[in-house]
Structure formats: structure tokens, C-alpha cells
Specification:
about 260 residues, about 15% strand, Sc_DH/Rdtase_CS, Rossmann fold, alpha/beta, oxidoreductase, globular
Length: about 260
């Protein structure tokens, strides 16, 4: 979809929150939403990255009321404080994109039997519990809106459980998969759609070193002959958030170049 199509799909003047939007997939989502007329709030635990992404939105799409805040979704007080600050300016949220994650190969990989709790617990705290915190904080300002609201959780094809040495990363993503399905049933009657996008191997700042090292080997597993880009993922995320997907909820869209 072009930016013009997305604007026609109902983002003009909407309030969107994108977690992890200082870089990678989430930053591209923030760009696309801003280009389509949304007021975008960037939440990221990296203050410098959030500042840079926010400046880009203000420079490129100055008509929007774009905001930023340093938020660590693994910290309950950080999420609560950011929500309070946001609600002081914006009482409701139309679009929530839950994209913040630990995805760098080093922290997420390793044989299950050799992985200490100090390594796997942050994966669960950020990749699942953190999303729960954000959802519980923001959903009260999303339910029962006249025009409806939309949540897109960014998961991972690792939730299938087929990746060796990614047991705890996959477990956190599987929990988010299940939560997405259940929430769609719970809040659908209150005019909130909840969907997920499940990326496979995608070039981002957190994966660039690993991707560069193994790309020639990995790309052979993908029928479309290349790895994903943040734009590939953002296109799907923004579609599911838009009114073009008005009768889609509880679905997980794998954006993976045909990898099975």
C-alpha cells in the first residue's frame, strides 16, 4: 500500500503508540503511520534512539503531534509512568504496535540445558511480560471508542518451536501468540481488534552482524531468495492496524518469504 492508501484507510488524526520505535521494524512502522497522518508516540528504552526517531518524524511529517518517551517495558514503574504522562496529553489511543523486544542472537541463543536464568529471564520479561504491561496500561484507553481501535503484536516465527537453541525466546513468543488470540476474543466486543505479525529472518540493527555473517547460508532456505527488511514487516503491520483490515482479528500473519 502507498502512504496515500494508508491515509485513506483511516490513520489521519489517529493516536498511535509504537514500542521499540527507536530502531528497526518499529521505527519503519512509526514512519509509515506518520506518513499516513497519525500522531505517533515513540516508546523506547534507548533515549538517544527515541530522540533521533522522534526528530525524523517531526522533520519529515511536521503536521503530526509526535511524541517520545524513554520506556523500559521490562520495568512496571517505567510503563506506568509513561502511560500517566501520555494520558495527560492524549486520553485515548487508536493504534498500539507492540514491537519492543530482545532479538539479538547473543542474548537469545543457547542450548536450553546450558542457559542460566540470568540469560532467559530477560527474554520473558521483555518479549512477553513487557507486552502484557503495555497492553494492560493502554487498553483501557482503547476500548469502546466510536471508530474502534487496533493492536498489532510483533511475534516471531520462532513461536512454532522448530528452532534449536531458541527455546526460551520461542517460549516467550509463543506466549504472546496465545495472548493475541485470547485478547482478540475478549476485547473484540468492545471494538478493539488484536492481531499479530510473525517475522522470520529480517535485517535490523540488532541482527545485522549475525545476518551479515550467515546470510548466504540462510537465504537458501527462503523461496523468495532474500531475507526480510523492516519495510516488509512494517507493510504487514500497518495493514493489520488499518481499516483495510477492519474484519480481521485474532490472526497471526507470518511475513517470512515463504519459509516453512
Amino acid at each position: 500500500m502507498s502512504a496515500g492508501t494508508r491515509a485513506a484507510a483511516g490513520f489521519q488524526g489517529t493516536e498511535a503508540v509504537v514500542t521499540g520505535a527507536g530502531s528497526g521494524i518499529a521505527r519503519e512502522v512509526a514512519r509509515q503511520l506518520a506518513a499516513a497522518g497519525a500522531n505517533v508516540t515513540i516508546w523506547d528504552r534507548d533515549a538517544d534512539a527515541a530522540r533521533e526517531a522522534h526528530a525524523e518524524l517531526l522533520d519529515s511529517w511536521p503536521g503530526g503531534e509526535h511524541r517520545r518517551d524513554m520506556v523500559d517495558i521490562a520495568d512496571a514503574e517505567s510503563v506506568a509512568g509513561a502511560t500517566e504522562r501520555l494520558r495527560a496529553d492524549v486520553p485515548t489511543t487508536d493504534v498500539l504496535i507492540n514491537c519492543a523486544a530482545i532479538a539479538a542472537p547473543g542474548p537469545i541463543t543457547g542450548p536450553f540445558l546450558d542457559m542460566p536464568e540470568s540469560q532467559w529471564r530477560p527474554l520473558i520479561e521483555v518479549n512477553f511480560v513487557g507486552h502484557v504491561r503495555v497492553l494492560q496500561a493502554l487498553l483501557p484507553g482503547m476500548v469502546d471508542l466510536e471508530g474502534g481501535a487496533s493492536v498489532v503484536n510483533v511475534i516471531s516465527d520462532s513461536y512454532f518451536g522448530q528452532d534449536r537453541n531458541l527455546a526460551m525466546y520461542g517460549a516467550g513468543k509463543a506466549a504472546l501468540w496465545s495472548l493475541t488470540k485470547t485478547l482478540a476474543r475478549e476485547v473484540g466486543p468492545r471494538s478493539v481488534r488484536v492481531n499479530g505479525v510473525s517475522p522470520s529472518a529480517t535485517h535490523t540493527p540488532s541482527t545485522s552482524e549475525w545476518m551479515g555473517k550467515y546470510e548466504d547460508r540462510i537465504v537458501k532456505m527462503y523461496p523468495l531468495g532474500r531475507l526480510g527488511t523492516p519495510t516488509d514487516q512494517a507493510n504487514a503491520i500497518v495493514f493489520l492496524a488499518s481499516d483495510d483490515a477492519a474484519w480481521i482479528t485474532g490472526q497471526i500473519l507470518s511475513v517470512n518469504g515463504g519459509f516453512i
